[in-house]
Amino acid sequence: MTEIVRTIPVLPAELDDQPVTWHGWELAPVLSHGEQGCDICDHEGPLSLAEGRGEDRTRYVAIRCRRCQQTRVMTRDRTKLQPLGGHIYVWESPAQAIGADL
Ligand SMILES: [Zn+2]
After folding, report:
1. Where are the chain's structural domains?
2. How far is the CA of 34 from the centre of ligand 1 (A)?
3. What is the pTM of this model?
4. From the CA of 67, how far away is ligand 1's center (Å)?
5. H/E/C letters for each residue in the chain?
6. What's the average model confidence in pLDDT over 80-88?
7. End-to-end Cα distance, the chain
8. pLDDT digits over 14-23, tens only?
9. How far is residue 50's CA from residue 35's CA, in Å, rounded to a whole number?
């Protein structure tokens, strides 16, 4: 079997003027309501999700479409996800290769 290699955006090493440590990508859990798929390319999901932790313990969540790689980063307040600084971030570059379908 050939391993799938795809290119995904690199997550920011720094947010809100502090270093952020990111954990690996995983498939986002299916939510009972809210966004399941991609509103850019209409991919039905599931989306990929990565969690990050800032130096001041702020929790960040990156959500990425596995087809078009549109990526948004949000802060996480317990169970609520909020766009970072009121904005939706989209990373188009730089890119890194990932060896799994996540
Ligand atoms: Zn997409």
Report:
1. 14-28+35-93
2. 16
3. 0.75
4. 5
5. CCCCCEEEECCCCEECCEEEEECCCEECCCCCCCCCCCCCCCCCCCCEEEEEEECCCCEEEEEECCCCCCEEEEEEECCEEEEHHHCCCCCCCCEEEECCCC
6. 58
7. 17
8. 888 899 999 9
9. 16
- CB of 25 closer than 8 Å to CB of 50: yes
Residue 66: how many CB atoms within 10 A of its CB?
A: 18
Q: pLDDT for 21-74, tens place per residue?
A: 999 899 987 765 555 788 888 888 888 999 999 998 888 888 888 888 888 888
Length of the chain: 102
Distance in angstroms (rounded) separating the CA atoms of residues 29 and 61: 13
Whether 92 and 9 have beta carbons less than 8 Å apart is answered as yes
Distance 47 CA to ligand 1 centre (A): 9
